[in-house]
């Protein structure tokens, strides 16, 4: 069956996002190995998801979207990741950029996000974020000029960059002299602007097909009217509490899916020969680590259900983030041992999962800041500057 036929059937189906994905996974899985081997962006897989209407899945129905909630989006990403981690992670970066304004529209009655969500629904635009440059501390410079700012920046880890339409990004307002920056501005950037250049420099251990290239912005004019938010530099803002609470559980759905698929592959390989007592014990440890990751991720989703982002929800989500990362990595490492030598062959798909799962180490909050944030919370100390 052709990709066009499959995606048309998915589009016509009255189904949840994860049910739609399950119709696409044979095609997605078939392309995963080549994208990984050749450092190629998973463009065809991404296009298939978009054609199936999944790029607008998180947009509220009243604004033209699929009306999927966070749990449905999480299940969607987790299922994609079972078959291609790169496709899932790249798609997660668009998905969370849709889920955040959708949550604000539903729960905070923020109408300013409506034009963006309608464009996602009607025009099919793909949103990008730069996880390596646009965290709480920000990156890049905004020089004040008449009517707005001139932006100079290098945005790293911009997943999906070859296919993106709009980068949701930030820059520090350039201070006078040697003074530290005081303000960060948030604004969208058209990826088609002449001042924007996507490098071809994503050569990595794992998640090789995400197209997470550096994006260079040189001299782009951003008018005052395009600045969505100005916030104090160097500390958390309420919007970032929303971002962290919602985005991180969606991103870590991907790593959980990778770990689950590694477990399945390992057990299949182990069953092909008579498991000895050591293999049985390793399988038990793998199951235990995977269950810990699953429980931690479920907790993260439960925190989102509170619908009250705050420093407390950031703390709880980031505890979950580190528990998912630690145990998902452990489960995949054990999967390599359960599989034995067969797991070392690329053709079995396990070594790709082992490489892909390493990406779980690098999203915020990494273990150092997360431990300090949790400790400060427990002791009743300030957390505004811990990120």
From TrEMBL:
Residues annotated as domain Acyl-CoA dehydrogenase C-terminal: 253-363
Domain named Acyl-CoA dehydrogenase/oxidase N-terminal: residues: 26-102
Domain of life: Bacteria
Keyword Cell inner membrane tagged: no
One of the Pfam families matching this protein, by short name: Acyl-CoA_dh_2
UniProt KW keywords: Oxidoreductase
Name of this chain's protein: Acyl-CoA dehydrogenase
Provenance organism: Ollibium composti
